[in-house]
């Protein structure tokens, strides 16, 4: 199954990966969750993840968040609700 890169917690750190299965387990436990993904993810992979959860009946809100002036200062926020 698909693996995505979670947003890094430090600028020079390497992003950690998270699987769609792990996301599903967290949603089963909590019912909803906000995930932050690194800019190194391809937009296509993120859209596939959004479609995956929408097909399972979840509401998914996806947006790009800019946190600085540099064009590389952004990450993706995905809010998934049951």
Overview of the molecule:
- With 82 residues, this protein is an alpha+beta fold.
- The chain contains two helices and five strands.
- The strands form two sheets. A three-stranded antiparallel β-sheet has the order 3-5-4.
- A hairpin with a 7-residue loop joins strand 4 and strand 5.
- The mean pLDDT is 94.
- Residues 2-81 form the HP0268 domain.
- This is HP0268 domain-containing protein.
- Pfam families: HP0268.
- It comes from Hydrogenimonas cancrithermarum.
* Series of secondary-structure elements, N-terminal to C-terminal: EEHEHEE
User: Mind telling me the C-alpha Rg?
Assistant: 13 Å
Average the pLDDT over all residues and give the rounded result. 94
SS content category: alpha+beta
Provide the domain count. Answer: 1
What's the helical proportion of residues?
Answer: 25-40%
Number of helices: 2
User: Which strand order spans the largest sheet, edge to edge or round the barrel?
Assistant: 3-5-4
Instruction: Give a quick account of the main beta sheet: strands, pairing sense, barrel closure.
Output: 3 strands, antiparallel
Residue windows where pLDDT falls under 50 for at least 5 positions: none
Oligomer: single chain
Q: What portion of residues belong to β-strands? A: 25-35%
What is the 3D form? globular
C-alpha end-to-end distance: 21 Å
The number of E-state strands comes to 5
């Amino acid at each position: 199954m698909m693996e995505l890169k979670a947003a890094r917690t430090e600028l020079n750190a390497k992003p950690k990966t998270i699987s769609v299965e792990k996301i599903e387990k967290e949603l089963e436990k909590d019912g909803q969750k906000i995930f932050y993904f690194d800019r190194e993810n391809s937009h296509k992979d993120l859209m596939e993840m959004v479609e995956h959860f929408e097909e399972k009946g979840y509401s998914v809100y996806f947006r790009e968040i800019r946190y600085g002036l540099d064009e590389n200062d952004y990450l993706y926020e995905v809010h998934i609700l049951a």
